[in-house]
């Protein structure tokens, strides 16, 4: 673990505080066993202050592979339409959310991914 001190670490910890409170408000009980978080090795993420925050609240960090992109370029075509579809929806259970996602994927036009992959050629 890094011993680095950074002015951005306190800002990042404030962001984590807001995230924790938002989860507590929106999904009561979800944080009883802590949380699993994935972030990269940016200085604010690996700073001592951040590591102490994560330990205090029992949040686990998933390893982040070196030189790994967050998304495959082909995924960018997916998230805009998915976000528009899910916008404003609320789900009672995780099963409801999964069911809606499966339904959305099942009803995609057969050309959806072909168009997205072909659009990579023009970038």
From TrEMBL:
Record-linked InterPro entries: RNaseH_sf, Transposase-MT_Hybrid
GO terms for MF: nucleic acid binding
Superkingdom, taxonomy of origin: Eukaryota
Signal sequence interval, chain numbering: none
Gene3D superfamilies xref list: Ribonuclease H-like superfamily/Ribonuclease H
The name this protein goes by in its record: Histone-lysine N-methyltransferase SETMAR
Natural source organism: Plakobranchus ocellatus
């Amino acid at each position: 673990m890094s011993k680095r001190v950074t002015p951005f670490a306190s800002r990042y910890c404030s962001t984590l505080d807001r995230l924790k409170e938002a989860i507590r408000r929106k999904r009561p009980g979800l944080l009883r066993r802590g949380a699993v978080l994935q972030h990269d090795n940016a200085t604010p993420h690996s700073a001592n202050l951040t590591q102490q925050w994560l330990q205090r609240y029992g949040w686990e960090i998933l390893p982040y592979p070196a030189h790994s992109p967050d998304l495959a370029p082909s995924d960018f075509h997916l998230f805009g339409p998915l976000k528009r579809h899910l916008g404003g929806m609320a789900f009672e259970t995780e099963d409801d959310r999964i069911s809606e996602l499966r339904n959305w994927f099942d009803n995609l036009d057969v050309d959806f991914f072909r168009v997205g992959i072909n659009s990579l050629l023009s970038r």
